[in-house]
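> forwarded from #structure-qc
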């Protein structure tokens, strides 16, 4: 049986990133994937009826061209193309107004009116200095490469979303902010909940919130093609429960969250480290729906049809309240809904004249309650007649999400709660959280910094640490 320098378990964006990073440094590598398809959260399937292609998990990709890993590794030869919508984000309100996230900062300032000055103070420096900051923001704690720039970011990022929202005067500005920070799956009163809103807004003004042509599977396919073009090995339909079943190898990198790691036999982890993994906290789950649609979603404000993502939840106050109740384990009548309509921009997603819809809402961790009616009612609230366009639908509750991808424990798509305690030192209190108590085993999942999202940086950092520890290979932390 062939032996390897490194075996990588899991082919999500981070597993693929770790494998690519090591293979391009000349190390022999094997990716092992338990499913019949590579990709993890980057998979596209005909979930409803033939001809309608749905992204099973991730659909819109703010990090696609702005993650340091992807900036260095996305190859045009693999056929990967990204589509930019007319608007990065739309957020309709009951008042009839809509908050819009424009790619252009000048258009954004004009859109925000009285809130332009506040928004500019929060975002413009980040947009202008993203290349200099992204290595520090998308990584573990360390002495920053640009201390002054990072300190300016940190002063705003460490604030609660509520504290930042209080700086906005208009209902539209506050609502836009609510949708951005709502991606964090935390109550808006928590410290550092502003961080994700700042980053997502910044990315909207950089390359934009991009849609991969043909579906998110195309990102996974492009990464795999690059990996195999560099003679990397990959094995699918291979579920590993015991490390004794693996070929001979020097190091192991697992794209798994703590719960899955604790179930693997043969890792030889210390009791102290296993307890630390057991103490890791997971966050809220999601309930996901995909629709095959007869027509575009009939939003009252037609600008919403030109947005890659539509945040549905009305005002800041309404969203903040419902997210807090959900975090506390309650089922709310009007959940915050994240909606995407990729077929409006990508004709490969549906038969001619037809469309696809993609949405999820947050639910209590592990909830199995069907949220289909609540989600559809929320969309109908701002797009009357939406229900009449539904041809077919497919949904997944939290436990079905976990069954599809075991890393989504209790429906948590972020690899664990991303509060201040688990933001930079996840999954344990370590400045090098990619290492485990076994010097030959490393973690590369979203349960390590910088956390959830399709950016590949967890995998890159795990590979970087492992190569320095075992192969005397040093990669620049801030490569571009």
């Amino acid at each position: 049986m062939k032996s390897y320098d490194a075996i990588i378990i899991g082919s999500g964006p981070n597993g693929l990133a770790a494998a690519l990073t090591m293979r391009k440094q000349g190390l022999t590598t094997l990716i092992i994937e338990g499913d019949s398809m590579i990709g993890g959260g980057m998979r596209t399937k005909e979930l409803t009826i033939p001809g309608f292609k749905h992204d099973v998990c991730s659909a819109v990709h703010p990090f696609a061209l702005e993650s340091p890993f992807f900036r260095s590794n996305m190859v045009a030869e693999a056929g990967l193309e990204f589509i930019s919508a007319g608007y990065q984000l739309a957020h309709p309100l009951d008042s009839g107004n809509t908050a819009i996230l424009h790619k252009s900062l000048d258009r954004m300032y004009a859109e925000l009116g009285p809130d332009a000055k506040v928004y500019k103070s929060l975002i413009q420096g980040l947009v202008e200095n993203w290349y200099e900051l992204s290595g520090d923001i998308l990584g573990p704690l360390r002495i920053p490469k640009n201390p002054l720039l990072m300190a300016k970011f940190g002063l705003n990022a460490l604030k609660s979303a509520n504290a930042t929202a209080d700086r906005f005067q208009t209902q539209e500005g506050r609502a836009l902010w609510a949708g951005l920070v709502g991606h964090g799956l935390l109550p808006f009163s928590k410290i550092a909940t502003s961080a994700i809103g700042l980053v997502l807004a910044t990315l909207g003004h950089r390359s934009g919130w991009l849609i991969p042509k043909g579906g998110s599977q195309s990102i996974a396919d492009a990464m795999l093609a690059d990996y195999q073009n560099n003679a990397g090995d990959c094995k699918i339909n291979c579920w590993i429960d015991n490390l004794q079943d693996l070929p001979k190898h020097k190091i192991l990198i697992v794209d798994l969250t703590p719960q899955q790691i604790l179930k693997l036999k043969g890792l030889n982890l210390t009791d102290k480290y296993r307890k630390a993994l057991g103490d890791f906290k997971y966050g809220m789950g999601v309930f996901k729906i995909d629709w095959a649609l007869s027509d575009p979603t009939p939003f009252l404000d037609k600008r919403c049809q030109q947005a890659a993502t539509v945040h549905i939840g009305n005002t800041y106050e309404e969203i903040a309240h419902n997210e807090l109740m959900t975090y506390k384990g309650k089922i709310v009548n009007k959940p915050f809904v994240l909606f995407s309509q990729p077929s409006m921009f990508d004709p490969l997603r549906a038969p001619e004249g037809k469309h696809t819809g993609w949405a999820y809402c947050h639910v209590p961790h592990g909830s199995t309650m069907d949220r289909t009616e609540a989600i559809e009612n929320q969309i109908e609230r701002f797009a009357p007649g939406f229900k009449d366009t539904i041809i077919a639908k497919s949904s997944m509750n939290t436990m079905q999400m976990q069954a599809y991808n075991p890393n989504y424990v209790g429906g948590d798509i972020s690899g664990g709660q991303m509060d201040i305690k688990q933001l930079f030192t996840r999954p344990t209190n370590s400045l090098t959280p990619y290492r485990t108590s076994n010097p030959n085993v490393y973690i590369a999942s979203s349960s390590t910094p910088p956390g959830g999202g399709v950016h590949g940086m967890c995998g890159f950092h795990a590979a970087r640490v492992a190569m320095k520890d075992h192969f005397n290979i040093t990669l620049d932390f801030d490569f571009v």
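QC bot note: The mean pLDDT is 94. The chain has 16 helices and 16 strands.
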